UDP-glucose 6-dehydrogenase (Geoalkalibacter subterraneus), 445 residues
Amino acid sequence: MNLTVVGTGYVGLVTGACFSEMGHNVYCVDVDESKIERLKEGIIPIYEPGLERIVQNNFQEGRLRFTTALADAMADSDVYFIAVGTPAGEDGSADLSYVIEVAREIGRNLDKYAVVVDKSTVPVGTGERVREVILEELQDRGVDHPFDVVSNPEFLKEGAAVDDFMRPDRIIIGSESERATEVMRTLYADFSRNHDKIMVMGVRDAEMTKYTANAMLATKISFMNEISTLCERLGVDVEKVRLGIGSDSRIGYSFIYPGCGYGGSCFPKDVNALIHMAEQRQLFPLVLQSVHQRNLFQKMMLGEKISTRFGKDLSGLTFAVWGLAFKPGTDDMREAPSIALLHQLIGAGARVLAYDPVAAETARRELPKAWFEEEKLVLTEHQYDALKGVDAMVLVTEWKPFRHPDFDAMKRLMKAPVVFDGRNQYDPERMESMGFDYYAMGRGK
Ligand code: UGA
């Protein structure tokens, strides 16, 4: 099939690249000229395992093309994916201006039957709005081409996006037209060979499914984080409780890891957007508000533990921070717990030596320049370099190389063997027996 994907961000690029890998001809469109030029050279703007090879191979094979001209791409395609950003507005609602602008341009150039697919995470009712906008443009042009709008949300995890796309748990298709449903079924047939993963529902149902999935996962995390603080006060090890409840197949083991809060571009934004949708309809989204509040609080927990141990004024002290990305496997720091922690530490006068296997460049770009200029924050090349002479180490992101470090070397390098573990990576008894003053999330102290 011939496809156009508008937006070469995370979702758009993975979608376009993976469809081209399956043999489809794909145009990836973006307004950012320099991004398009870099993509043509095989330089991808994000860190995503496996993506670079797929982009480069399919570009060379001529199946994957990059352009800033949507009209040219549309002329050759039957399905147009809208995969542009929906950033959070000031009130927490999703800002749809990019989605609507793309819909307008599609309407301005539509000249045959096409399926327009909303791939971006969009509030319930956006499919209808996209349809209206395209119709307005067609009316302005005085033409009448049939088209259908479909909702096809993505469930890709950063760091595992290619794999998630190629081996999805389910493929949600919100469609009210048999013709469009057939096109989508054909497109996704390759990803649904072993058993039927395709679920067809209404457009609004599909839009809501996406938000609900993310909000449910965020709820599991916030719930477990709350339980972990209670465990701490009750002298209970939350890791035992996690295993105990995860064994119930109705609860399951995933997304019940307590930690220092969830981050990323999706959970915080989507929970807020749902809250906004509910409030707009005079509802009180008590659970969702608590999920959000708990997470804000949770991101402050490591800093709280540190000030309980060292006092409110941290001047003269140096801390190692292991991990800056919002989770392992990505260089993305959006809404990362590390940011809240750095503000707390540096704000209280401390100096920080930080190490992350891939997010150093993001940190240099996103964090306050003054921190680097005044050497309040120094990024190190190696995880052990960050430990030299520090008063404590704080583990924020559970990258694999942090799991089994050389504890003797750590003790030799650090001024004092104090560890704050925001991701419960180590065994408290073992840490204490090795002479560490060890703090974790919901495990005693
Ligand atoms: C999330 C969803 O998992 C995807 O299904 C969805 O497609 C995506 O959002 C999206 O809407 O685009 P992602 O943001 O990449 O994917 O990250 P997750 O792996 O879900 O992790 C989110 C956060 O939760 C991370 O900060 C992670 O550290 C935290 N987390 C996760 C916990 O604190 N505890 C857990 O048990 C699991």
